[in-house]
Amino acid sequence: MDSISSGSSLQFLAKLLHDTQEEDDDDDHVPCSSVSTMTPASIGPVKKETSGTFQVKSENRKTIWNTEEVPEGAEFDDTWDPREQPEYQILFKQCVGTEDVFFGMSRKDPSTACCEDMVIKIKLPETKYSDIALDIQDKVLDLRTPQKKLLLHLPYRVDSKNGKARFLSEEETLEVTLRVSRMFDFINFL
């Protein structure tokens, strides 16, 4: 039985390795091997090539892109504004008690997944408090002053209605504290 399966395996292998170019009656007798025509793309099922036409998925054919393709906060992008970006720092803050620190009774760890607040510290030298315009959306912080401009896409969704901002004039720093709003926070912070 092994000799039959081996014979049929050898015939199948010979058919697989048989080069179709050798059957052509060309005057060029360039030796070709089937190994050179084998590429990683030839492994697996044969993919059908699509023609050069694209399918329009939107109902309105006059639109250039779908709303799903535009990242959130892209309406704030202003690449032509010559003002420079200030230095900033994003820190995460969590409320811990003695039961967390000493006993480890809650499920909190030092990662950002267990943090409740996001603190953004923005250095604004030679800026007055009255010159600062701050707009906070769910995923975007937009800060404008006469000299500086910061458009910051936040790493987590925040509660834009309940934030705190304070300007530390001695340090020339604006400190914005925002509550992080994640899905399933009721599970993380019982």
Explain what this protein looks like in three dimensions.
- By secondary structure, the protein is α+β, with helices and mostly antiparallel strands.
- Helices cover 16% and strands 24% of the residues.
- It contains four helices and seven strands; from the N terminus they run ααβαββββββα.
- The mean pLDDT is 76.
- The longest helix has 16 residues, at 2-17.
- It starts with a helix and ends with a helix.
- Strand 3 and strand 4 (140-144) form a beta hairpin.
What are the salient characteristics of this protein?
single chain; 4 helices; 190 residues; three-stranded antiparallel sheet; alpha+beta
Overview in brief:
With 190 residues, this protein is an alpha+beta fold. The protein is 16% helix and 24% strand.
Q: In what order do the strands lie side by side in the largest sheet?
A: 1-2-7-6
Largest sheet: 4 strands, antiparallel
Low-confidence stretches: none
Topology pattern, helix = H, strand = E:
HHEHEEEEEEH
State the helical fraction: 10-25%
Q: Could you tell me how far the N terminus lies from the C terminus, measured between alpha carbons in angstroms?
A: 67 Å
Q: How much is the average pLDDT? A: 76
Q: What structural class should be given to the helix and strand makeup? A: alpha+beta
Strand proportion:
15-25%
How many beta-strand elements? Answer: 7
Shape: elongated
Query: Rg from C-alpha positions?
Result: 31 Å
Q: Please count the helical segments.
A: 4
